[in-house]
Structure formats: C-alpha cells, structure tokens
Amino acid sequence: MNIGQLVLGLISIGIVTAFNLYLFAIDRLSSSFAIVSGIWIVMSWALGKYIDLLRYTITYDSLTSAYSRTVAVKQYRRLLHRAKRKNGAVAIYFIDVDNFKQINDNYGHNIGDKMLSKIADQLLQLRIPEKVVVRWGGDEFVVMVPCQSEHEVEAALHLMNKSIQSINQQGTISLSISLGTAVYSHRGSHQGARPKQLEQLVDMADKQMLWNKQRKKMNMTVISKHTGTGRYYPNLCRKMF
Q1: Which residue in 93, 203, 221, 232 has the most C-beta neighbors within 10 A?
Q2: Residue stretches of the chain with pLDDT short of 70
Q3: pTM (two decimals)
C-alpha cells in the first residue's frame, strides 16, 4: 500500500467509525453499516490512487521517466549532504542535444520525442552509483553525480558521451551532445563558506556547455568551498581534489 492510500484509508476508517457511532445511537446501524463502509472503502482507494499518480507526475517527467525539474533541488540537497558526510563533491553535468531543432524539423516531433526518451534511457542505465538524472527542459538534461576524485568526475563524463554514441549504432539518425560540468567540493579549510545553490551550478555548467558546443573540448568549472568562486580549467581540472 502506498502512502496516499494509507493516509486516506486511515481517514476513511475514522469517518466510518464516527458515522457508525451516530447510526448506533439512533438504532439504524445494521443496514447502513455495510453501505457506508463500502462507499468509503471505494472512495479511499480511488483517492489514494489519485494522490499516488499526482505524486508520480510531480516527481518524474512523463516523456522520459527522468526526474522532473521540480524535485531537482531536493535530490541535489541529498547528494550535498552525502558529500559533506564523506568529504567529497557533487558533479553537475549539463547536457544539450546538438541540432535537436533540425531533428524535429526533418523527422517530426514524434521522432524527436523518441530520441529524447532514448537519451534518457541511456543516462538512467549508466552504472554510476547514486546518480540523479533530471530532464531540465526541452532537449536539456542535468545529471548529478557524487564523487570523491577528479578521476570519478572524468570517468562519468566519458560514460555519458559513450552512452549517447551507442544510440547512433542503433538507428539512422545521428545524435551528438554538448556537455558542460560544474563541481562543488566540500573539501577546503574555510568552514563558513556556503554551498553553491543548484541553480548557480547548473548555470555555470550551462555556460561551460555553450563554450564546449563551440569548441567541442571538454572543460570543467570548479566551485571550491573555501573560495566560493568558479574558474575554468582545461582537461577536467586536476587541481580540484
């Protein structure tokens, strides 16, 4: 039983009990008990199903089954807490599909939607522990990955590129992505520094993605806890960890 059904079931039991006490008081319990109980059981089940469906709709993107943007901050905070506990970092990867408008124009929006679903499937199947895949909007995805080293950041990046390349082997439409990365690290001596907000990290990764889209080189933006500032470093910034 899901949470929505459980809560509504308990409420329904309370209402039915109160109503039955009233019926008992006026000596009309026997025939009305089954009717009222049956009605409330059906209503609680239906409402519970609706609440669970609503919760799923809010949590997940209907087209790709990736997380929706509305719950991205909650997932980021969870990874941030993990990074703090393990003295690690959180890498934010911003992914944009190259020439996606042309795919829609040439093949139709149905094919475009299928391409987005395939991309999301590949990202969701990546063997990266505790990763979070979010459809940020349109043809843009954000992937959040907990990491302990620069090597893990770079490895995840190459896995993402490789997973998208595998789609090209399955069909006739050529797909490519541009990707930018921003990393927030909890390592540093200045304990008073505040963590960067997700929107700020995504914005920096987005700008890096645009830079990479033009140059097609993999660079990375790093946010350091003790500086609170971002800098661009080539070759995935070996100074981060």
Answers
A1: 93
A2: 1-38, 40-41, 44-45, 169, 171, 187-195, 216-241
A3: 0.74
What is d(CA 32, CA 22) in angstroms, rounded to the nearest whole number? 11
The DSSP output letter for 71 is G
Distance between CA atoms of 221 and 235, rounded to whole angstroms? 11
Please tell me the predicted confidence (pLDDT) of residue 112: 94
Task: Classify burial at 82, counting beta carbons within 10 Å of its beta carbon; exposed 0-12, middle 13-18, buried 19 or more.
Answer: middle
By residue count, the chain amounts to 241
Alpha-carbon gap, residue 58 to 20, rounded angstroms: 37
**Phi then psi dihedrals of residue 62, to 5 deg:** -70, -30
Residue 162 and residue 97: Cα distance in Å, rounded? 14
**CA pair distance 112, 86, nearest whole angstrom:** 40
CB 86: neighbour CB atoms within 10 A?
Answer: 12
pLDDT at 125: 95
Residue showing tokens 């991205």: 72
From 79, 196, 54, 194, select the one nearest 134 (Cα to Cα): 79
pLDDT at 50: 72
pLDDT of amino acid 231: 40
Instruction: Give the dihedral sign, CA 228/229/232/238.
Output: negative
Q: Which pLDDT value is given to residue 168?
A: 77
Minimal CA–CA distance to 36: which of 15, 55, 52? 15
